[in-house]
Every structure is written in C-alpha cells, then in structure tokens.
Amino acid sequence: STGKIATAASAVCGDNLPASFEPYIQQLNTAVAQAPDASNLTDCSIRVTLIPSQDASVIANIPLMVIERGQPISSVDTQPDNEQVLQQVLSQTNFRLVTNMLNWSTMNNRLSDNTRVYLTGESIALYADLTALADMTTRETLANMLRQQPLPVMQKPGSQIRLISTDQFWLSPWFWGMVVITVFLIVGYRYYLLALQSVTLDSKNYELDLKNQELTSLKDRIQKRNQELEYLSTHDSMTGLLNRPFFEQMVEREQNRAYRSGQPLSLLLLDLDHFKQINDNFGHTEGDNVLKETAALLRKHLRSVDLIARWGGEEFTILLPDTPVHIAYELAERLRQHLANLLLPPVGHITCSIGVTGFEAKEKFEKVFLRADRALYQAKETRNAVVASELETI
Ligand SMILES: Nc1nc2c(ncn2[C@@H]2O[C@H](COP(=O)(O)OP(=O)(O)OP(=O)(O)O)[C@@H](O)[C@H]2O)c(=O)[nH]1
User: Fold this and answer.
1) Quick one: DSSP state of residue 244?
2) Using a 6 Å CB cutoff, which residues line ligand 1?
3) Sign of CA dihedral 172, 174, 178, 180
4) What is the CA(298)–ligand 1 centre distance, in A?
5) GGDEF domain spans which residues (predicted)?
6) Under the phi-then-psi rule, with left for phi > 0, alpha for psi from -120 to 50, and beta for the rest, what region is 348?
7) Is residue 63 helix, strand or coil?
8) For ligand 1, atom 13, which residue shows the shortest CA distance?
9) % the chain with pLDDT above 90
10) 290 CA closest ligand 1 atom index
C-alpha cells in the first residue's frame, strides 16, 4: 500500500525524504495499483533504496522500473524502455538505487545475490544492485550485463530480455551442451581405455612373439646339437664311418631282419697292409690321410645299405645285407683291386687284406667276427689278398 511504501521510504530516509521523491513514490504507487493482481500484494514487498546525490533533482528524473507479474519487461509499455532507464541511472555515477518488488514466498532465495539481476517471465520482481552498474566504467546496458552473467539462465530474443528460471535449467542450451560434452568425455575416455588396452596387448603380443622366436631358435639349436652329438656318438670322427659300438648295434638289427626275411648276410674284415711303415715313413698325418682316402673309396664302391665301420686303427668292417658270401667275396676282391690301383701321393700305392664270411642263422656276431678274422689272418699271409672262410671249407 502507499502507506507501506511511504514507511519503507521513510525508514531509509527518515524525515529527510526529499520532496523531489514525491513523483517517484507516486509512480510506484500507481504501478502497484495497476498490477493485475494488486489485491494479492499483501505477501509482497517493494523496497526502494536511494542513496542521495549531491544533486537531488536528478532523482526526479529516474523513473521507476516496474515489472508486472507474468509479463516480460518489454511488454510493460506504461514504463520507459528498461535499457533507457538503465542508461539514465548509469549516467548518474553518484547514485545507488536498489529496487525490489518481491514475492518473498517464492523469490527470496533467488534474490539473495546482490550482484545479479533476475527477470523471469513469471517473475514479479526486478532486483538490481545498481551500485555495481553505476561503478561500471563501460556503461554497459542491462542486457549486456545480463549477457555476461555466469549463470546459464539468460536469453534475449530481439529486444526482449527474458531469463529462464533455474527450475527450467534443463531446457537451456548450457544444459544440453554439458550433456553432450559429458557424453563425449565418457565415450572418449572409453575409447582411450580401449586404445590403451590395445596398445598394451600389442606390446605383450610382440614380446610373446620375440620369446617364441627365441624358443624356436633355441629348440632348433638343441635339435642340431643333439644330431651332432648323436653323430659323434655313432661315427668315427676321422673317417666319418660308423664307429665300432654303433656298428655292433646295427649288426644285431640287420641280423634280425635277415633272419626274418631269409636273406643272406655277409661280413668283410679289411686291414691295410704295412700301415705302420706308412706312419713311419711319411708321418701320422699322412697315415691319417690314407685312412680317410680308404674310407672314401669304400663309400664310393659300396651300396648305401651296406654298413661300413672303422673297427679300430687301420682295420675296417663291412656288413653286406642281402648278399651271399660268394658275392661278398667278389665284392671284396673288387675293393682290393680298387685300393691297389689308388695312387695316394706322397705315399704312393697301398694294399689291403680282406677276410670274408657269411652269417649262419641265429649265430652270435662274435663267432662270425672270429671266422672273418681267421680268414683275414690267412689273407695276411700273402697280403693284398681276399680270403673267404666258407670258400675255404667248400
Ligand atoms: N696314422 C694313424 N695310424 C694309426 C691309427 N691307428 C692305428 N695306427 C697305426 O697303425 C699301425 C698298425 O700297425 P700294425 O698293427 O703293425 O699293422 P701293419 O703295419 O699294417 O702291418 P700288417 O697289418 O701286418 O700289414 C700302428 O703303427 C698304429 O700306430 C690312426 O688312427 N692313425
């Protein structure tokens, strides 16, 4: 009511309420009276605070801003344009004007911030701390000031200033902007984690590949080494022929096979003649060379199924599968001739003696070997000769 407004004004200014305030208060009263729901204004208050200027006449020139309930500012055509009002206030740097028309039951909390202006479609209040505005050197308009508010509640379609209440915040572009950014951040973070996981997996896979390669190469080396060891354990290192223990193993296997198949099996025992003289005359290296050449010659003239071994020193054993003793004899004779014909500088020609025998069914190898050795012994009587034990008895 007018009385209340006058009381409020007096409470601020006391008895010193300048006469020039009269039109101002009149204007306020008129606005309140014209408000569509003026009858309900019992729970509203209007506060006008003026800090006097040196020049009181200025006050009379400041119209009151009144916003009616439920109406945007621009539609209050009984009042001057708000920006115009503001410009007028701002031009008076010595003035401080705070104007409130409050519905305390709904707006109290929202109007507690003195640094902001709130104007809403449903608002019944304009709250302006014009101290802040008056201190602004750039003389920005109310619209500009509102635009700079940090609260995301402002909208200005055309010249109309409209703030969206924080209750409707979810409608604002700020809200949806934040939703989109949040979604992007979540999705982006998920992709980042996936990428990180993939990089980690790649590096682990790479390490595993390397380990696998190392293991494969190690396995190959072990396999190769095993083959070498097996070769060394079964072969004579100088001539590359089978060694004696392995030859004996193989004989047993071949004997079984021959007995099963009923095929004949023969044995040659070959010994180089006067080998000691070769060592004595030409040295051990030349002696070794003769042994290697002999081995090569035997390999050359025998079949791949024949087993050739260095029995020891300058003595060789040859097992001939599927070979009857008379064929073995002929073969031994050819070997003897080949060796006798071989020229080995600086040693020259060498000769050998060979004992030949055949295997009887289920006969022990020691017995067969003894027979071949006896035949060799006989051949050694003349040297450069072949003697077959069976032929001898036939
Ligand atoms: N260079 C060389 N000589 C060896 C090797 N193994 C054994 N000998 C030699 O072979 C010779 C064998 O001599 P003997 O057993 O008397 O036989 P031989 O001189 O051939 O006489 P006959 O067999 O009766 O014709 C010895 O001097 C051994 O030192 C070897 O691996 N290398």
Assistant:
1) H
2) 271-276, 279, 284, 287-288, 291, 313-314, 380
3) positive
4) 18
5) 263-391
6) left
7) coil
8) 276
9) 53
10) 1
C-alpha span between 25 and 1 (Å, rounded): 11
* Residue whose CA is at the smallest distance from ligand 1 atom 12: 276
Q: In the numeric block, which tokens belong to residue 145?
A: 């000031």
Mapped onto helix, strand or coil, the DSSP state of residue 147 is: helix
How far apart (Å, rounded) are the C-alpha atoms in residues 63 and 83? 12
Provide the whole-model pTM.
0.55
**Diameter of the chain measured on Cα atoms:** 167
Question: Mutation test of ligand 1: which of 237, 276, 278, 316 has the most ligand atoms closer than 8 Å to its C-beta?
Answer: 276
DSSP symbols for 262-287: T--EEEEEEEETTHHHHHHHH-HHHH
| Minimal-distance CA residue to ligand 1 atom 8 | 313
Query: How do strand 96-103 and strand 128-129 relate by DSSP bridges?
Result: antiparallel
Rg (CA), the chain: 62
Q: Distance between CA 174 and CA 317 in Å, rounded? A: 101
92-109: pLDDT as tens digits: 322 222 333 333 223 322
Measured between its terminal Cα atoms, the distance across the chain in Å is: 159
Question: Is there a contact between 337 and 297 (Cβ–Cβ < 8 Å)?
Answer: no
- Pocket probe mutation, ligand 1, options 275, 285, 376, max atoms within 8 Å of Cβ: 275
* Contact indicator for 133, 89 with CB cutoff of 8 Å: yes
The 10s digit of each residue's pLDDT in 309-364 is: 999 999 999 999 999 999 999 999 999 999 999 999 999 999 999 999 999 988 99
Q: Encoding tokens for residue 288?
A: 């070794």
Where do the H-state alpha helices sit in the chain?
2-13, 22-34, 57-60, 82-91, 104-107, 130-134, 142-147, 173-234, 244-261, 275-282, 284-301, 325-341, 365-382, 389-393
- C-alpha 211 chain-centroid distance: 16
Kind of pairing between the strands at 315-321 and 96-103? unpaired
367 C-alpha to center of ligand 1: Å? 24
**Residues listed for the chain:** 394
Residue 131 has pLDDT above 50, yes or no: no
Q: What distance in angstroms lies between residue 358's CA and the mean position of ligand 1's atoms? A: 26
Q: How many CB atoms lie within 10 A of CB 142?
A: 23
Of all protein residues, the one whose alpha carbon is nearest to atom 16 of ligand 1 is 276
